[in-house]
């Protein structure tokens, strides 16, 4: 089990301080296109890990679609927000603490793994692969670019398509990778990199 890095602690502290405002800013955002693409690859009633669930917006959507959802976030304050939104207990743990094996058919990591430092992403992705059944599905998204560092007191790892492909290659087969605009109002000029991949 890995210990949280200094960067993790600083980023988590940001979300602990700003949880209600962050949820208010993102609760109405629709991840419809990406969520639909993810769901289409899952069996009915699939077990899904919402990994870095934030305020629980997508956990709630996935439950409504009939999936068995486990919600996890590293911020205790965000977990409380997600509990309010979903009515279901949220596990409080960092990405490095995931140690399940074959527990999920899908992992939904929407705008969450971007807070992991580049050097730690291979181990985190390997943990995701272990937690998935064979051919299990991973969705992840990052800001598109090559910046690594702090913005607004949070660590960000921006990735380009080639870099993400290399990171995924040891454990995953890429199904689809695509760029999309930020879906939050007034932020459409900020591009995102989305990826769907299956565990080997």
Proportion of residues in extended strands: 25-35%
Poorly predicted tracts of residues: none
Mean pLDDT: 91
Question: Could you state the order of secondary-structure elements as H and E?
Answer: HHEHEHEEHEEEHEE
The CATH homologous superfamily name equals Vaccinia Virus protein VP39
Would you tell me which CATH topology applies? Rossmann fold
Protein structure class: alpha/beta
Largest sheet: 7 strands, mixed
CATH class: Alpha Beta
Describe this structure in words.
There is one protein chain. Helices cover 34% and strands 29% of the residues. The chain has 200 residues and is α/β, with parallel strands linked by helices. The chain has one domain (6-115, 136-199): Vaccinia Virus protein VP39 (Rossmann fold, 3-Layer(aba) Sandwich). The strands form two sheets. A seven-stranded mixed β-sheet has the order 3-2-1-4-5-9-8, with helices on both faces. The protein starts with 5 loop residues before the first helix and ends with a strand.
């Amino acid at each position: 089990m890995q210990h949280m890095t200094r960067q993790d602690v600083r980023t988590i502290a940001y979300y602990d301080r700003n949880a209600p405002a962050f949820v208010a800013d993102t609760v109405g955002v629709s991840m419809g296109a990406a969520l639909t693409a993810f769901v289409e690859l899952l069996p009915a009633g699939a077990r899904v890990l919402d990994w870095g669930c934030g305020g629980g917006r997508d956990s709630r959507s996935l439950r409504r679609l009939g999936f068995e959802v486990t919600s996890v976030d590293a911020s205790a304050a965000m977990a409380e927000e997600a509990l309010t939104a979903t009515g279901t207990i949220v596990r409080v743990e960092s990405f490095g603490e995931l140690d399940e094996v074959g527990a999920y058919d899908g992992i939904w990591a929407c705008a969450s793994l971007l807070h992991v430092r580049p050097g730690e992403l291979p181990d985190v992705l390997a943990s995701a692969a272990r937690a998935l059944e064979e051919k299990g599905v991973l969705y992840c998204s990052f800001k598109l670019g090559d910046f690594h560092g702090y913005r607004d007191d949070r660590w960000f790892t921006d990735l380009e398509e080639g870099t993400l492909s290399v990171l995924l290659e040891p454990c995953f087969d890429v199904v689809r990778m695509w760029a999309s605009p930020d879906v939050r109002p007034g932020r459409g000029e900020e591009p995102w990199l989305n990826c769907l991949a299956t565990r080997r």
